[in-house]
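Please check our next protein.
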Amino acid sequence: MLKITTVPNDILNQTVIPVKKIDAKIINLIAEMEKTLVVQDDPPGVGLAAPQVGENLALFIIKPTERAKTKVFINPKIIKSEILETGGLKLDGNTSKKKKQKPVKLEGCLSIPRIWGPVKRSDKILVEYQDLSGSIKKDWFHGLEAIIIQHEIDHLSGVLFTQRSVEQNLPIYEEKNDQLEKIDY
């Protein structure tokens, strides 16, 4: 099993290099990443990027639920993203109609233990990537999968979710004694 790299570690703030060849080393790395991800339980992990295990490579895996099959993303790129208006209500200034606004959920990260924060993300994304066989795929993802993929692609760019929260002027929380306390920054 691989060790999860945690902050402050420079690899978490670097842009990765593309995977040139899906060879035995890459296949083994992905298998070890999957073993590492599935044993995470406090909190459970839903995605893991190569930099989080000390490898500066453009790949990650996701497993949104315990029963879900692990999906592999090599050299991924978001081609298109859409923000759908769903969830809570927001008044539209131009009319008396109410517009729906999606609630922002808290994100966490295995590389930043006990820290949580909201991040506004696209609801639906079109991703181009290679799978484990090397085939190039283009697929739409939405909901939790879209959020996880955006979080993991941020890792490949050296961006942590806490940076996104700060950029969006959103609070960050630290977990203490099973309670969330707002961090002043």
About this structure: The CA atoms of residues 171 and 179 lie 15 Å apart. DSSP finds three helices and eleven strands in the chain. Residues 24-38 form the longest helix (15 residues). Helices lie at 24-38, 143-156, 161-167.
